Amino acid sequence: MKKLIIVLTILLLIGCKSKKVVTEPEVAKIEKIGLAEISENQKSKAYELGKRVLMTCNTSKFKPFTSSEATPSVIKNTTVERLSKTCNRFRQYYGTFIDLQLVEAYRNNFENTTVFRYKALYSKKVANKELRVTMNAENKVASIKSLDWINSFPLD
């Protein structure tokens, strides 16, 4: 009889154990931020590093990123060979690179990054290009991406 009570007690305890609460997966919260909310240091660093990449198209010279300027993956992927290939295509279609114009910035709270959206200005006005520079919490370039300009920012 005692064994039966012990077995039933154990089964009761196993049956009553708390169940894990299933929560919704965390979704990256991306929000537009005012340009005045961003430190001048971060804005100027993003501008200078983005401009350095696109100026390569005009000068054919690229000063590689240092570990204090960019993440290891950006340093590894931003090579003279890759830039030359991209620059040849850009110069053919868009002409000479002139400057970058900061349009807006977004904060990704999940990854703790700031995304700067620049309009890249070229001598030929055939298309609007965007340069997207992502800076991490350490004020390093986490990614640089060039694409066609669209007015709305896709929250990917």
Order of strands in the sheet with most strands:
1-2-3-4-5
Low-confidence stretches: none
Order of helices and strands: HEHHHEEEE
How large is the radius of gyration?
25 Å
Q: Count helical runs.
A: 4
Total domains? 1
Percent strand: 25-35%
Q: Indicate the percent of residues in helices.
A: 25-40%
Q: Give the CATH architecture.
A: Roll
For the structure shown, list the relevant keywords.
4 helices, Nuclear Transport Factor 2, Chain: A, elongated, about 35% helix
Description of the structure:
This protein is α+β, with helices and mostly antiparallel strands. The protein has one domain (29-148): Nuclear Transport Factor 2, Chain: A (Roll), CATH 3.10.450. It contains four helices and five strands, in the order αβαααββββ. The protein has helices at 2-15, 40-59, 72-77, 80-94; strands at residues 30-33, 97-108, 113-122, 129-135, 141-148. Strands 1-2-3-4-5 form a five-stranded antiparallel sheet. β3 and β4 (129-135) form a beta hairpin. α2 (40-59) packs across α4 (80-94). The protein is elongated and about 90 Å long. It starts with a helix and ends in an 8-residue tail after the last strand. The model has no long low-confidence stretch (mean pLDDT 85).
Summarize the helices and strands and which ones pair or pack.
Elements: H1 2-15, E1 30-33, H2 40-59, H3 72-77, H4 80-94, E2 97-108, E3 113-122, E4 129-135, E5 141-148
Antiparallel strand pairs: 1-2, 2-3, 3-4, 4-5
Helix pairs in contact: 2-4
Organism: Flavobacterium petrolei
Protein name: Lipoprotein
